[in-house]
Amino acid sequence: MTPRLACRTRILLAGFLLCLSAASEAADSRQLSKRGKAILQQNCGRCHAIEVAGESPLQQAPPMRDIYGRFAPRELQAELKEGMVSKHRAMPQIDFSDEDVDAILAYLYALAIKK
Fold first, then answer.
1. pTM: predicted TM-score of the whole model, two decimal places
2. What angle (nearest 5°) sits at the alpha carbon of residue 49, between those of residues 36 and 93?
3. CB within 8 A of 66, min separation 6: which ones?
4. How far apart are CA 63 and CA 45, in angstroms?
5. What is the pLDDT of residues 41-93, one digit of tens each?
6. Mean per-residue pLDDT of the chain
7. What is the Rg, in whole angstroms, of the alpha carbon atoms belonging to the chain?
8. What is the rounded distance in angstroms from the CA atom of residue 82 to the CA atom of residue 66?
9. Highest mean pLDDT of the ranges 26-35, 87-96, 106-115
10. What is the architecture of the domain spanning 31-114?
11. Would you say 103 and 36 are in contact if contact means Cβ atoms under 8 Å apart?
12. Are 109 and 65 in contact (CB under 8 A)?
């Protein structure tokens, strides 16, 4: 193999590995987002809309996409970890795990970029 061909081969291999890594990260991100949607559906979907469009089942409950837009990311992260407090007494206070919060934020971010 000539040095020039070897160099091109290395460049092509590096490019392939970068593409493979990016594809893997995208798949991980989709899985995280999918998990976040499932968590919201199970814990919040009874009252809050969790999709990119549509009204909340409970009129007083804002859609989760709107809640995402009201907070700075770190602030929302802290609220979810500590259990969001609401003036609405029937809303349960749920303390989500760090992993659940990451998944929820990934899903809400995915909704925000779909708007």
1. 0.74
2. 65
3. none
4. 9
5. 999 999 999 999 999 999 999 999 999 989 888 899 998 988 877 767 778 88
6. 81
7. 20
8. 19
9. 106-115
10. Orthogonal Bundle (1.10)
11. yes
12. no
What CA–CA distance (Å, rounded) separates 34 from 55?
21
Rounded CA-CA distance 97/44 in Å is 15
Higher-pLDDT residue of 109 and 9 is 109
- The whole-angstrom separation of Cα 41 and Cα 50 is 7
Q: Which two tokens stand for residue 87?
A: 């003036």
* Residue pointed to by tokens 């070897």: 6
**81 CB-near residues (< 8 Å, 6+ apart):** 95, 96, 98, 101
Q: What angle do CA 77, 53, 41 make, to 5 degrees?
A: 55
Token representation of residue 39: 């968590």
